[in-house]
Queue: 2 jobs
Job 1
Amino acid sequence: MTIIHYQNLDVELKIGETLLDGLLRNGFDVPCGCKAGKCQSCLVSVKSTNDSLKSSQYGVNDTQKSLGYVLSCQFKPLSNTTITPVSANGKQIEAIVIDKVFLNDNVVRIRLKAPFEYITGQYVTLYKNAQIARSYSIVSHPIYHDFIELHIRILKNGVFSQWIKNDVWVGHKIGVQGPMGDCVYKKENRDMLLIATGTGIAPIYGIVQDAIINGHKKDIQIVYAAMRYKDLYLAKDLQVLLKKYSNIKLHLITQYSSGIGACKQDVYQYVQEKIKNLSEKNVYVCGVDSFVKKMKKKLISNGLNLANLSYESFLSFEPTDEGKKPDVK
Ligand SMILES: Cc1cc2nc3c(=O)[nH]c(=O)nc-3n(C[C@H](O)[C@H](O)[C@H](O)COP(=O)(O)OP(=O)(O)OC[C@H]3O[C@@H](n4cnc5c(N)ncnc54)[C@H](O)[C@@H]3O)c2cc1C
Ligand code: FES
């Protein structure tokens, strides 16, 4: 039996239970977002334990490590452990919403003024309140913009995205944590293939901008897929890039409805049939977790070396079933 000492109380963990699940089960208000070790909202500080912390400190910086910070969703203590909460100002900074625009009927663009440095394609974690946090990829580029731009897909029952849609306006202050992640442009003289579904196009668009700024000369192929043609909300912006840069090629793919310049086909099949010489490319894949997992498998079985793959999985609490229609708006 493992006992956790937290805020002057003892909590008994079930066998194999994570620290986060144990705390939530016992009614503690611990911040949490992805439960997958990505958003870092669930950080707690370990004051004493006989366990190694290493495997639950992925992405935690050196200062935080020296303070015993662990991702509680990844930590399964085997010995009695004492922990303390990490205060909001130990990990978040305050950002102000300076712009909010609907890019189509289910994607909202927000721009935040926040004093931190980032690389386009990384992500930040935003806080609705002390408990609810969600991560979003950065589209803007620090050379062009003095704000952080995020594209947020509105889900019908989405706790966070509905709040952004209905209650967040210009002037609103939001707690932000980050930046995190390494799905960013690699400065290598190789062809690039970038594949996205839904708002996965947000970091992909940012990475393409970074490649352009860095004067990337080799081919850049973008495969942008969605359920319906109207969901391809960044297609026009990408088409503008096509006209300016001869090394960029765009493939628009839809599953259910067709439109100008788009091919109605299964995206996995399309990539398998149309994209050649994978071993010579740096590949980027972004979107919901089920899509990223399946696309990774396909690409690797078609000759892609894992070392040349960068990806961002939009993990959520309950990942969507493969092929299930999204519950949008
Ligand atoms: C590293 C990272 C980067 C991310 N970047 C982005 C981004 O740039 N833009 C963006 O829109 N999202 C992004 N996400 C996803 C985002 O963090 C949230 O998971 C998402 O916005 C849903 O939050 P919510 O509170 O609105 O929905 P929740 O209340 O968490 O979920 C409501 C319901 O919708 C389901 N659900 C969750 N996500 C999806 C989905 N994509 N499609 C269909 N059903 C879903 C859930 O399983 C649940 O049943 C990213 C996630 C991670 C981990
Ligand atoms: S990292 Fe633990 S909830 Fe996201």
Job 2
Amino acid sequence: MAQDFRVSTCGEAATIIAEHPRGYPKELEHTVTLRNRARVRLRPVRPDDEPRLMALYDRLSVDTAYKRFFTRMKTLPPALARHFANVDYQRRLAIVAEPTGGEDSMVIGVARFEPTDRPTIAEVALVVEDRWQRLGLGAILLEEILRAGGQRGIFEFRADVLAYNSGMLRLLAHHTDVARRRTLQGIAEISFRRRRPLRVADVDAMRR
Ligand SMILES: CC(C)(COP(=O)(O)OP(=O)(O)OC[C@H]1O[C@@H](n2cnc3c(N)ncnc32)[C@H](O)[C@@H]1OP(=O)(O)O)[C@@H](O)C(=O)NCCC(=O)NCCS
């Protein structure tokens, strides 16, 4: 992935500051407030997130890591972290969440989509660090990645979810329109779309 670098010579040692890679959709950056009032910044992933993604993996509980990757790994392999951090922002996109205010930037959640063999269907994956779960961040990340998908012409999504993963299944049931679900060998393959925001006319109709 092409990336521009700016060399800062302020101070004794020259530091290299990573700038936005080509095609970086800056408009997807914004800050949200979670249920516990913590402020979290959302932004598209960048190549320099590779070590942050590895550090996030190291902080995940075994259960959370297994639900995300369906396997046990001691660490996130560097090649996989590099793949995750380098996207084209069109067919492959990831949005990361980082708490505001900390000195070092730290990734606490990631939502991504990857292409499938059908150009209008993408595969979604989500993870939120354990101590940040149940605060609404998963639902926010899901909404952000589905909306970004729609802006890129992707309206149908798929996710493979362990059949016992009630958290993710509830998240999809509550926040998306699930079209299909089939379970094979303990893995539920869910097809879904972004839930359309309610229009005033819909709300009026529900009140009648
Ligand atoms: C699934 C996951 C992303 C949810 O993130 P989160 O930040 O805890 O989710 P939220 O706080 O936004 O919760 C959203 C909804 O999901 C439900 N939910 C979340 N975690 C749940 C759990 N452990 N058990 C039951 N319901 C749960 C909540 O009822 C909530 O519903 P509501 O919005 O109607 O109140 C997170 O638990 C996670 O990272 N799990 C491990 C990785 C994973 O399972 N990935 C999915 C496969 S790709």
